[in-house]
Amino acid sequence: MRVSTLFSVVAGLLLALPPALAQEMAPPAPTEDLPVAAAPEVDAGPALSRADLEAWVDGFMPYGLASGDIAGAVVVVVADGEVLLQKGYGVADLATGAPVDPERTLFRPGSVSKLFTWTAVMQLVEQGRLDLDADVNQYLDFEIPAVDGKPVTLRHVMTHTPGLEEQIRGLIASDPEEIVPLGEALKRWVPERIHAPGTTPAYSNYATALAGYIVERVSGESFDDYIDRHLFEPLGMRSSSFRQPLPAPLLARMSKGYERASDGEAKPYEFISLAPAGSLAATGADMARFMIAHLQRGRLGDARILSERTAERMHTTGQPSIEPLNRMMLGFYETSINGHRAIAHGGDTQWFHSDLQLFPDDGLGVFVSFNSSGREGATGHLRSALVRGLADRYLPGPGPRGEGVDEDTARQHAEAIAGHYDSSRRPDSNFMSLVGLMGQVKVFANEDGTISASLMVGPDGTPKKWREISPWVWQDTAGSDRLAAEVVDGAVTRFTAEPYAPIMVFQRLPAWRASSLLLPLLGLSLAVLLLTALAWPVSALVRRHYGVRYALTGADARAHRIVRIVALVVPLTMIAVLVMVVMMMSDLSLLGPGSDAMVNALRLLSTVVFPLGALLALWNAWQVLRSRRRVLAKLWSVLLALACLFLLWVAAAHHVLGYGAYY
């Protein structure tokens, strides 16, 4: 997996689509409520029927799996309280060739699991046992600190606006021994609060797990028992479980997970440390029951999991991100398409990639899950294309249409939004903040007046183009997603785009923190030091070859030799830290306790090497500058000192120095 996994996994368990601010609002106006030009008439399209639907999906999925190098998938479509399609495609086990069976094969829907946690919370809210606007500390046996006197509430938690930084350690493990009880995992390390509560969407697995723990404490049942009794049993979801390890009868029917189908190597079962945020395993048939219950406002047959009023509240209480983009409901993302109101949640583990979309006003629900990561970005594009294709075919309608802006304004606004941005969803107080340095989002103005953003790419892997359709609102030139900026005193302070809008925004960085400046400086500093280290043996060999004596003596000789050691040890330590971070983000199994010794050793080494290296480099520069050596030697000694000081600053600013393996 790539460093970009932070936005797919650490956003789905990491799937981050984007959320909203913090007070309950009236049900939102449709996202298409921009200034609208006369809309063209839309072809009604074919009627939704089992036969037409199956023919369309059968035409889409096999090619999608083959082109994406994906082993198998399950697709479920429900409408008006009935299952119209539940079908497996490809295989659940490449070794045996076992096909995907929607009734029997279990998939890992990742963060789609959160919808069950949120439903459980709303059950207890309905019973008057939880208050969405109360300080969560009244339900806990440990404390979540307030920021500026503002406590975290369950409303903040359900809309991903508690202001917590990203927690990555122990996200996904392959060893069940690494899983600790929920309460213990939450108390071990409380992420720093980096945003005021209710102001900034920043998707949080920790906050979701906190909600699951509150369900445990208030109900008096373990989270697993509560979900079994109050959701799975009444809905007849007999092939679903949050339990880890998975019960043996269900594990026997669990699909294998793969990186790519062509590799053929089944991956170990993934254990989620913050279980309420993503540990569900379920069949497609069971997910159909859950979708129908929500589409019927909390009812499935004679069973009711939520009252109509509570379900409606959950589906329509919107928290804005940046207007007028899609918002975060109470647990669901708003994802309206073609003027049809839609709510959804995506989910990603390392190997499974899923999406659940509901169209409440149309009684339609779609669930898809893939058991392979596939070619880079394939599962994300396929699940989006599947939902979009179904909506365009069976729920056509006009997309958002703005009046547009004049060419000069478009160019001015494009220049104004251009720059470097940091995600609101990020590790901030620990060494994993280096991921943010290496993965900043760059917005740039194109020659034709459109803008592009480095994170937002199309199926071909190139950045999408966005054209301004109303002041500070842009639309994907090849689709209907929108991008919007927040402007304060004429300056863009942050922006976001669909589908990220409900769960995160991108905050402008000052020029001195832009990766376009810092990464070249980092590379230059490493190069200066490594060239100095390389010059040591090279110069010795040259002197030996020509029979030239070493000219320096005394303090000059000592400084010269010491700074050569510094020039080797300092860059190698920084390279080791960067390699460690990249490795951990490429293989999430390295984010567990098994890597703690490596993390602590490198942090302790850094705490000695970078400050000492900077001091020795400064001492060397002083020695050289006051000597009679050549101007070039003096300039190089200053460069060495500056390189060491810069690496010390990077290590300090990104919390590499110190001790501890919580991140």
Structure description:
This protein has 663 residues and is α+β, with helices and mostly antiparallel strands. It folds into three domains: 351 residues, Beta-lactamase, CATH 3.40.710; 103 residues, Lipocalin; 139 residues, no CATH class. Helices cover 38% and strands 15% of the residues. It is built from 17 helices and 22 strands. The strands form five sheets. Strands 17-16-15-22-21-20-19-18 form an eight-stranded antiparallel sheet. β12 and β13 form a beta hairpin. α14 crosses α15, α15 packs antiparallel against α16 and α15 runs parallel beside α17. The radius of gyration is 27 Å and the shape is globular. The protein starts with a helix and ends in a 10-residue tail after the last helix.
Give the structure's gist in a few sentences.
The protein has 17 helices and 22 strands. It has 663 residues and is of the alpha+beta class. The radius of gyration is 27 Å and the shape is globular.
| Sequence of strands across the biggest β-sheet | 17-16-15-22-21-20-19-18
Q: Which shape, going by the Cα principal axes? A: globular
Determine the structural class based on helices, strands and strand pairing.
Answer: alpha+beta
Strand portion: 5-15%
Say which CATH homologous superfamily of the largest domain is assigned. Answer: DD-peptidase/beta-lactamase superfamily
Number of DSSP strand runs: 22
What is the terminal-to-terminal distance? 19 Å
Q: What's the CATH class label of the largest domain?
A: Alpha Beta
- Assign the CATH architecture of the largest domain: 3-Layer(aba) Sandwich
Roughly how much helix do the residues carry, as a percent range? Answer: 25-40%
CATH topology of the largest domain: Beta-lactamase
Number of helices: 17
